Amino acid sequence: MRVVIVEDEPLLQQRIARFTRNILGKKLTHLGQFLTLSEAEDYLADNEVDLLLLDLNLQGQNGFSLLQNQLAKAFHTIVISAYSDKAIEAFEYGVLDFIAKPLEEHRLAKALAKLTDNTLRSHYGCRYLSVKKHAAIELIEVANIAWLKADGHYSEIHLINSEEIYLHSKSIEKIQLLLPEQFERIHRSYVVNINQVARLLVESGGRYFAQLRDNTQLPIGRTKYLAIKSHIETKKY
Length: 237
Hints:
Layout: E1 2-6, H1 10-24, E2 30-34, H2 37-46, E3 51-54, E4 57-58, E5 61-62, H3 64-70, E6 76-81, H4 87-92, E7 97-100, H5 105-113, E8 128-133, E9 136-141, E10 145-151, E11 154-159, E12 165-168, H6 172-178, E13 183-187, E14 190-193, E15 197-203, E16 207-212, E17 217-220, H7 225-234
Parallel strand pairs: 1-2, 1-3, 3-6, 6-7
Antiparallel strand pairs: 4-5, 8-9, 10-11, 10-14, 11-12, 13-14, 15-16, 16-17
């Protein structure tokens, strides 16, 4: 795992680095450490990373500006900040977790576990996803997403009542970590907004489909059908 730390207090930066090494062990393949936003921006522009550990107050500069510039990148972000009142705003930017200072190793370990355990995703969910479109960044409101489809290391995003398809640089596994609970993985290649499911279809040969409100039909994996059926019957989103 390739990790970048952006923290302007050298002692705290070293503490975060030590905890990260302890927790990830051999999974950690690279650890970059930066004191300023400009240094981090330059590095992220030319290098691929998996995780950003970000402070929000960096020598008077707002760490959110880095998130705004990097929203469409494939890496996840965990915010580590003394400004706990910024947590909701951070989740709206699609961060994986928000850790209030002072930082404890067990809390960072819990946040890092979200990278591999989908059951630990935040109950907040992000409010927006961002995509690159014509060399610009466009924000998509999550509430307007009907379903997503895996496309290799990327994801197709399909909106409610729209034929336009957006491509996101995060894999479908990474995106689902950020989405609210009403987004269910119904198949290895599909995530659906349960609120958009009109009914479930059972066809011969043990094939299952979710029919959406716009009549789109998406396949449901055989091992997932009963769980999806239960979630739809009891949904409270």
